[in-house]
Amino acid sequence: MGVFKAAAIQMRSGESPERNAVDLERLVREAAAQGATYIQTPEMTGALIRDRQARAASFTSEDKDIIVATARRLARELGVFLHIGSTAILRADGKLANRALLFGPDGVTLASYDKIHMFDVDLDNGESWRESAAYEPGAEAVVTGVGGAKLGFAVCYDLRFPQLFRAEAMAGADLLSVPAAFTRQTGEAHWHVLLRARAIENGAFVVAAAQGGLHEDGRETYGHSLIVDPWGRIIAEAAHDEPGVIVAEIDPAQSLVARKKIPNLKNARDFAINAGEVDAPRLRGAAS
Q1: Residue of 43, 62, 150, 168 marked active site
Q2: Residue 152: which residues within 8 A CB-CB, separation 6 or more?
Q3: Residue 64 contacts residue 95 (beta carbons within 8 Å)
Q4: How far apart are CA 257 and CA 261, in angstroms?
């Protein structure tokens, strides 16, 4: 579709998927009214729930999920590409996936991606997270067409693993997605610089829809949804943590221009690591 408008939706998802679906619909309609034909929502659009029993009671399979059903209906009605940044999906084996889903203008599921890197960290002031205790990590990167662009998938903590984005760029992605629920602590420190770095490193647009504010389950997220161009310039930002919509124009040809100026994808070379007497480390997730 050549040049198009992309939107990043900023949310403050609570513990009720039903209430979050109402907020989702309102914000998606707002984005479409502004001319966006690719609309991205944040990580855990469906619900943010810390309590294990409450999660078990709220999350269900993809075919029964209210967020999936709402998104499919809206994509078809509005004629847009609707990218649910992620929502919790109950897998057939009884485990949960932190799953991104892309719906086409006809409402058909075009692609899905399960978050690969689990947020298992211990931060300052006693803030600790163990995503792997609740979710099963994915094992496959995904690139798919969105009109005239090729979209590479990621979710939140994936942002800290540049090899994922490099592999997707090498597979043709010129639009990278980073829907997130970054904590306030990590967002204030790293959000902007990491998103701009991924855009610059890969000569690609980056769209990052975020959760923001104080949530029902007690966590606090950073907000500041961003859209970054292939030269690393921020072209749209929600400079706050309130729910809302940002929109920017995406011209996939700009990715080609950036990659011609700095052809690092073409100039990359294989290399060995000389670690002296120490055994060379095994490279994980490196694109060959």
Answers
A1: 43
A2: 141, 142, 143, 165, 168, 169, 171, 173, 175, 176, 177, 204
A3: no
A4: 6
Query: How many whole angstroms separate alpha carbon 139 and alpha carbon 181?
Result: 21
For residue 24, pLDDT beyond 80: yes
All structural domains of the chain: 4-263 (3.60.110.10)
What band does 288 get if pLDDT is binned at 50, 70 and 90? Answer: very low
Active site residue 277: no
- Among 62, 115, 150, 168, the active-site one is 115
pTM of the model: 0.94
Is residue 43 flagged as an active site residue?
yes
Query: Per this entry, what is the length of the chain?
Result: 288
Q: List the catalytic residue out of 5, 25, 140, 156.
A: 156
- Looking at residue 234, its pLDDT comes to 98
Whether 150 is a known active-site residue: answer no
Query: Alpha-carbon Rg of the chain, whole angstroms?
Result: 18
